[in-house]
Structures are given as structure tokens and as C-alpha cells.
Design brief:
This is Serine phosphatase RsbU, regulator of sigma subunit. It holds the Pfam family SpoIIE. The protein folds into two domains: 137 residues, Beta-Lactamase (2-Layer Sandwich), CATH 3.30.450.40; 171 residues, Phosphatase 2c, domain 1. The protein has eleven helices and 17 strands. 43% of the residues are buried. The longest helix is centred in the N-terminal third of the chain and has 21 residues. The chain is an alpha+beta fold and 392 residues long.
């Protein structure tokens, strides 16, 4: 017997990319007897969740609250919120491979049974995949993400990102850019290929559109080498040569390239005048010392050497740009001297996607919530060890 496609999945596949929320609403009402639904999208700063369907929301807003919407997004678990009149709201995470997109809210006339909750969770998973695919075909969901207009440089940077988080059997990875709406040259990139995870973090040179263009060239050169089968050294050298022959050494990009063997925890690195790497093991935060080499693009035909270090199961790596490490608001000591380590230690019970937000919020608080003076990138990598693998 051939299984027929699920009716909700079929409805989502047939819907225009800008009408997924409406199609899901109709299908959920018909399938589950829901009285109301809405789709909430996380903004660029991951500071709030904003509705796609309801123009006058009653449950949207800041992620610092303790409501069902906020709890669902933070925990990435379904949350049931029953009302006194018998109605019940289900909040379900919209996530794809660990990328947290938002939350699906389903309002039901009564408390659902286990089968209904499981069915609702499956629908949320299908909708998340559809939203991720539709993002290239419509601006609707990107408009929902922005609370203010992006600069041209920031528009380019967000378009260039691979995502903001990813989950694997052996690791969790997340990153965040700030200031979200005006970021210029700082950036991160990653790719998962079999047992190899490649991560690059760039500390961009300059400000605004010129910095964004420089970073875009560097990122795409490294991607070109990587997608052609080149290792870290080839990626760094191609990017460096490309930048040098375009700018003759007047513009360059400090970059860290990492390659994690997800089976063993061995990390290969090319440190091209790089962002900073810190390891959290237990309650201890310590820097990973690497020999700094020339930033990408500083000299013609620069050559790079590999270095190695090893992670233990349960280790957490933070990679931060100078905008985090060296921030000195109002004459205070640099954030990276002591305050950053305190923030990182405080994240030890949080998943990676929450940890990057905590470090960024602490950075903003260190600036007394004034605008950051420099771009800032935080990337967090948790390696769980090979025993986290299926069959491992």
C-alpha cells in the first residue's frame, strides 16, 4: 500500500510562498478543529517574536517575558497554555536543523490529547521547512523579522549568512551579528559535510558598505575553494590572493578558519590575524592560543600554516570579533578582560543558540545599552562527543 501525502503537507507544498501562513491556518482549522492560529517570526536581534497573520497581536512581544510564546521559543519544546474558559493554546517551535525561525500558535476549543499534540508538532515541522524554502521567493517573512530598516551593508551581511544556528548529532552551533540593523564587515560562515564542520569568523575592515563588500568577496572566495574540495589552507590562500589583487594590500580581513572533525573533536585552524577563541570547560573560561598569521589580503601570495587543538566532550568554544573583545565603553576596561568571561560562564546551562544572545545582551548592558561603536560577532560551538552520534 502506497502512503498518501499528509493533507497539511500537500496544502503547504501547493501554496504560494507568500501565503504559507494562510494555507497552514486553513489546513490546521480543518484538520485539528482549531479556532485560531498564527505564525510568529523571530526578529534579527532575537529580542522578540512578531506575528505574520494577526495585525493586532495579543501575545507577541519581547522574549524576556515568561509567557507560553517565549517559553516555547527559548526551550524549543511545545508549550500548552490552558485558559479558564476551557480553550487551550499550543505553542510549537518552528525550527529547521536547529535554525530557530519562530513559533506556531494553535488555539483549540479544549485541551488536546496526546495524538493531537503530536499531530500539531508534525505540522509545525512541515511549516518550518516550507518557511525556510519560501524565504528565497518572497520578502514577507523577512519584513516580519525587521523592527527597523536595515542599512545596505547590513542587508548584504544578513543575506550572506548560512543561518543563525544548526543542530547535529555531535554538535550545536550558533552565531549572532550586532548591531543587527547596521552591521558592516564582521561576519561568520559555516558548512557541514559528513564528519567535517567548517566554521569561519571574519573581523571586517572598515565600516558600512565598503566593509560589507570586502567581507562578501572574502566569504565567497573561501566558499569557492571549499566547494571545490580545498582545505583550510587553500580557502585562506584563495581569499587572500583575491583580496590582494583587488585592493593591493590596502584592504584586508582578519579571519579565523576552523575545521572540526565531529567524530574525534580534533580542530584544525588557520589564524589569519584573527578573532579570539575561548574554550569553556566546566566553569573555566580560557583562551585558545594560536599563532597569528597575516590577515587575508595584506600581501601578495601569502601562505598559511595549519594549527591543531582538541576538544573534549562537553567543551564549548566561543569565537568573538574585536567588537566584542576590545569594546571599551566610556573608558571602562575592555569587555574581554573580565566581563565577557563572566557572561560566558553564566551560559553553561544554556544551549548554544541562547548562549550567543546572552553574551550579546551582556555586551549591550556593558555599553549601558547605548549603540555599539563597532561591529560584533559571537559564535558558539558545543561539541558533545562521538557518543552523541546515532549508532556511535
Amino acid at each position: 500500500m502506497v502512503d498518501r501525502p499528509d493533507p497539511v503537507s500537500r496544502t503547504l507544498r501547493a501554496a504560494p510562498p507568500d501565503q504559507l501562513a494562510e494555507a497552514a491556518d486553513r489546513a490546521i482549522r480543518s484538520t485539528l478543529g482549531a479556532t485560531r492560529t498564527d505564525v510568529f517570526i523571530a526578529d534579527y536581534r532575537i529580542s522578540g517574536l512578531w506575528p505574520v497573520l494577526d495585525p493586532e497581536p495579543t501575545v507577541a512581544g519581547s522574549l524576556t517575558g515568561a509567557g507560553g510564546l517565549q517559553r516555547c521559543f527559548s526551550s524549543q519544546q511545545p508549550v500548552r497554555d490552558a485558559a479558564d474558559d476551557g480553550r487551550c493554546r499550543l505553542f510549537l517551535p518552528l525550527s529547521v536543523w536547529g535554525e530557530r525561525l519562530g513559533v506556531l500558535m494553535i488555539e483549540l476549543p479544549g485541551v488536546p490529547d496526546g495524538v493531537t499534540e503530536e499531530r500539531a508538532a508534525d505540522i509545525a515541522g512541515d511549516l518550518a521547512v516550507a518557511l525556510r524554502a519560501a524565504d528565497r521567493e518572497t520578502d514577507r517573512y523577512r519584513r516580519a523579522r525587521r523592527r527597523e530598516r536595515l542599512t545596505m551593508a547590513a542587508e548584504m551581511q544578513w543575506e550572506l549568512l548560512p543561518g543563525r544556528s544548526v543542530t547535529h548529532q555531535t554538535f550545536h552551533l550558533a552565531g549572532q551579528l550586532e548591531p543587527a540593523y547596521t552591521v558592516g564587515g564582521d561576519h561568520f560562515d559555516w558548512s557541514v559535510d559528513g564528519d567535517r564542520l567548517t566554521v569561519t569568523v571574519l573581523n571586517g575592515d572598515g565600516n558600512g558598505l565598503a566593509a560589507s563588500l570586502l567581507t562578501a568577496v572574502a566569504v565567497n572566495a573561501m566558499r569557492n575553494a571549499r566547494r571545490s574540495g580545498g582545505g583550510l589552507v587553500e580557502q585562506a590562500e584563495l581569499a587572500s590572493d583575491t583580496l590582494y589583487y583587488q585592493h593591493r594590500g590596502e584592504r584586508y580581513v582578519a579571519t579565523l578558519l576552523l575545521e572540526l572533525d565531529t567524530r574525534t573533536g580534533r580542530v584544525r585552524a588557520v589564524d589569519a590575524g584573527s578573532p579570539h577563541v575561548l574554550r569553556v570547560r566546566g566553569g573555566t573560561v580560557e583562551p585558545i592560543t594560536l599563532d597569528q598569521q597575516l590577515p587575508l589580503g595584506m600581501f601578495a601570495e601569502a601562505r598559511y600554516d595549519l594549527q591543531e587543538f582538541t576538544l573534549a566532550p562537553g567543551d564549548r568554544l566561543f569565537v568573538v570579533s574585536d567588537g566584542v573583545w576590545a569594546a571599551e565603553p566610556e573608558g571602562q576596561e575592555p569587555y574581554g578582560e573580565r566581563a565577557m568571561a563572566r557572561a560566558m560562564r553564566s551560559t553553561r546551562l544554556q544551549p548554544a543558540a541562547e548562549a550567543v544572545g546572552t553574551v550579546m545582551r551582556e555586551l549591550h548592558a556593558y555599553h549601558a545599552d547605548s549603540d555599539l561603536r563597532d561591529d560584533a560577532v559571537v559564535v558558539c560551538l558545543d561539541w558533545h562527543g562521538s557518543r552523541g552520534r546515532v549508532g556511535g
